[in-house]
Amino acid sequence: MKAVAEAMSPEEELTLARVEVRTLTNQLRQARVDLHRLGIADQNRALIYATAVGGLGLIVGVALGIRFARAV
Q1: For residue 40, which of 30, 35, 48, 54 is within the disulfide window of CB 3.0 to 4.6 Å?
Q2: What is the pLDDT at residue 71?
């Protein structure tokens, strides 16, 4: 590959780099579409809700623990 790159002119190298960037951009775009099609947005929403409910449960648990500690 290095020998091929040395034989290419700078314009050809730039053209090749642009083609590679375009290909990678299209692959990334397709991967994002596939992830959303698989429901990654719903999974993110579920993770946010689970985090919020877990935090609320932790706060309630600490509050109850403090209350029962004072009662005893």
Answers
A1: 35
A2: 80
